[in-house]
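Here is one such protein, fold included:

. . .
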Amino acid sequence: MTRRSLPATLALAFLYATAAHAQGAPDGQKISAQGANGAPACITCHGAKGEGNPAAGFPQLAGMGGKYLAEQLEAMANGSRVSPVMAATAKALDPAQRLAVAQYYAALPSPLDIDGLAATALRPVPPADTGAWLATRGAWDKNVPACNQCHGPGGIGVGDNFPGLAGQPAAYIAGQLRAWRQGQRPPGPLGLMPAVATRLTDAEIDAVSAYYAGLPKAASLLASQAQPAAGAKQ
């Protein structure tokens, strides 16, 4: 072997190694569409584009943080997050498969109108609207911060650690808050959620859950109201 041919040989070896690794890596999209290791396809419950199924209480996955989704799958697999529906699926997938499917959903575009949702956070909120008040103002008399402080304006989500809440089924959000109350979910960043959930009444949990579930419709209404005003200025 000549010295001049060595770089080409190394480059070819690198390409073969890369191809072999790629072939062995789990395919998140394939898992979502076909399932794996006996686990059902994710799209059965969460929709073809990860949009979720509000009527059935299945949450949106598209556009969620990949780290967050991977952590939730791991928690459901090891039992630290109690989920009768998802436990068997999460356990069936190996760690690499869980990471792959999490990264796949994280890369999908969110089906929500992000700008419209953020605009709803600027609207005046009457104190009597319990859900909106908790989401945007909190309940500082009980040391409950506004949900939007971590989850972003309009509940759009922030980074990998704070998932979007807007458009998620009300029953799903309420169920998770009650799960934190009962120690059935890991505490999450800074251990915030168990403390928040235990300080909310059942009525407050239901109110803030309904608020976030209804935000996509509210954002669309806000956008439709703004269009005539914009046209009038032209």
In short: Residues 175 and 205 are 9 Å apart (CA to CA). DSSP finds 13 helices and no strands in the chain. Residues 9-107 form a domain with the Cytochrome Bc1 Complex; Chain D, domain 2 fold (CATH 1.10.760.10). The two ends are 74 Å apart (CA to CA).
